[in-house]
Specification:
mainly alpha, about 240 residues, globular
């Protein structure tokens, strides 16, 4: 089944790269995103881009933004283009199709995130030339690796689940956008939280072991992804999808 999963994933990745406009994101928009997150924001933050925990929070959630627009097309797009029936009529198993689409979305988000991170490192080192090589600490680099995979997987699992039920790609993207709004709602509301509360939380976090916090956060994300994946496997019924 692994070969079949890789076959489906390869097909999905080729379509994401070759038909970006129809898969939710054009090549030009990708260039703009790379310039914003790989050049502009790192230049604004300077050395803090590789040292500040705030920066780590930003690029830890990057994959959700990259994945949500393309993964919405995974089944809803096939349904709109009338290619879903042909895909379901192949010898590929249900799990090979489902996992293949998940793997493609995860790989897309993970690869794009790390490409932007590498560009950002080049940017801050060129801007701060002469001051020594600027790199993420081993702990931050490990966090970037783990959470870029987990967040890509989270976005992919949510997106596939949404795309299975959505009537159109636009509807799936709207639902995914709403999900992203919920995820970033705490950051938008933080300005309304009393400063005393924020200072108390900051003190608690600063006194905690960052490695332990990361492990608990990673475990929580993994559990959520497994739940979404189980629901997607339950909903993926070939006969029902063909009738839909």
């Amino acid at each position: 089944m692994i070969a079949d999963i890789l076959t489906v994933a390869g097909k999905e990745l080729r379509e994401m790269l070759m038909f970006g406009e129809t898969r939710g994101r054009s090549k030009m928009s990708l260039v703009v995103l790379v310039l914003i997150f790989g050049v502009v924001i790192p230049l604004q933050n300077g050395r803090e881009w590789v040292t500040s925990p705030i920066s780590a929070m930003v690029w830890a959630w990057m994959p959700y933004m990259w994945v949500y627009s393309v993964v919405a097309d995974s089944f809803a797009g096939e349904r709109e283009r009338h290619t879903l029936e042909a895909l379901l009529a192949t010898r590929l198993s249900d799990r090979a199709i489902l996992f293949g689409k998940l793997l493609a979305a995860l790989a897309y988000g993970f690869t794009l995130t790390w490409a932007i991170l590498l560009v950002s490192l080049v940017t801050v080192n060129v801007a701060a030339r002469g001051g020594g090589l600027l790199l993420f600490s081993p702990l931050m680099a490990l966090a970037a690796l783990v959470f870029s995979i987990l967040i890509s997987g989270l976005s992919a699992s949510i997106g596939v689940l949404v795309s299975l039920r959505a009537g159109s790609v636009r509807q799936a993207q709207q639902w995914m956008s709403f999900g992203m709004l919920i995820l970033f709602l705490p950051l938008m509301l933080i300005q309304f939280i009393p400063r005393a509360w924020l200072e108390s939380v900051g003190t608690t976090v600063s006194n905690a072991d960052p490695l332990q916090i990361g492990i608990w956060a990673a475990a929580a994300l993994l559990v959520v992804e497994v739940v979404f994946l189980a629901i997607a496997m339950r909903l993926f019924q070939r006969s029902k999808l063909i009738l839909d």
